[in-house]
């Protein structure tokens, strides 16, 4: 199936775009949502996280303590790698299982750290970046989450730069300060239509890349 890797920095609006693509019929596989399911109470990753980081990494409800873990992994690269070694194999397993069941004109893999991982270029036909200027990202994340500028800055510093994301992109959906939700939806729908056309051509054996 024709495939898109959808990415963007925190606060870029990629989840909103992904929801619209699903509404219009695309098969959407969101690695962030998979990770949340894996680390929710009773999730498949909980016991492995507990074994790796101790009981303090788990909330009384039995979920990953995201605030505790966020502070830990941004302060300690080894802790970040340890968490990734627990989560990534489980995420990949879930992604492959969902991809096998996917139906629709094309499949979208929503991967926040797509560019950073270096593992997705050969797994998808096209990479799409939802692009946003850093200051707008910060304001949006503050408005929805209440995180401090310092915390948001550390999250952003662990992600690829805007320039690196754009350099990796085959397609770009702009969602900057001047973009309202209606404009973003129109841009996303135009891109959806182009991908549907490419998916048809790919099925006919004409193109996949380019």
From TrEMBL:
Binding residues for ATP: 11-16
Record field: catalytic activity: 3'-dephospho-CoA + ATP = ADP + CoA + H(+)
Superkingdom in the source lineage: Bacteria
GO molecular-function terms, A-Z: ATP binding; dephospho-CoA kinase activity
Cellular compartments annotated: Cytoplasm
Pathway where this protein functions: Cofactor biosynthesis; coenzyme A biosynthesis; CoA from (R)-pantothenate: step 5/5
CDD domains, per database record: DPCK
Keyword Nucleotide-binding found: yes
Gene3D superfamilies: P-loop containing nucleotide triphosphate hydrolases
Keywords assigned: ATP-binding, Coenzyme A biosynthesis, Cytoplasm, Kinase, Nucleotide-binding, Transferase
Assigned GO CC terms: cytoplasm
EC number(s) given by UniProt: 2.7.1.24
Pfam families (UniProt xref): CoaE (PF01121)
GO BP terms: coenzyme A biosynthetic process
Family under the similarity heading: Belongs to the CoaE family.
Record's function text: Catalyzes the phosphorylation of the 3'-hydroxyl group of dephosphocoenzyme A to form coenzyme A.
Designated name of the protein: Dephospho-CoA kinase
Gene (name only): coaE
């Amino acid at each position: 199936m024709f495939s898109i890797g959808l990415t963007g920095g925190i606060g870029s609006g990629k989840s909103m775009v992904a929801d619209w693509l699903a509404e219009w019929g695309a098969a959407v596989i969101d690695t962030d949502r998979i990770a949340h399911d894996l680390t929710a109470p009773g999730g498949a990753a909980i016991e492995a996280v507990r074994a790796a980081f101790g009981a303090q990494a788990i909330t009384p409800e039995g979920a990953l303590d995201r605030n505790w873990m966020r502070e830990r992994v941004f302060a300690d690269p080894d802790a970040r790698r340890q968490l990734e070694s627990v989560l990534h194999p489980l995420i990949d397993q879930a992604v492959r299982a969902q991809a096998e069941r996917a139906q629709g004109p094309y499949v979208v893999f929503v991967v926040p750290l797509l560019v950073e991982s270096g593992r997705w270029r050969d797994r998808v036909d096209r990479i799409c970046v939802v692009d946003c200027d850093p200051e707008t990202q910060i304001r949006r994340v503050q408005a929805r989450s209440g995180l401090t500028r310092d915390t948001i800055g550390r999250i952003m510093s662990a992600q690829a730069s805007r320039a690196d994301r754009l350099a990796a992109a085959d397609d770009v959906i702009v969602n900057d300060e001047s973009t309202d939700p209606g404009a973003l939806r129109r841009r996303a729908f135009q891109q959806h239509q182009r991908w549907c056309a490419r998916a048809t051509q790919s099925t006919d054996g004409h193109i996949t890349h380019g």
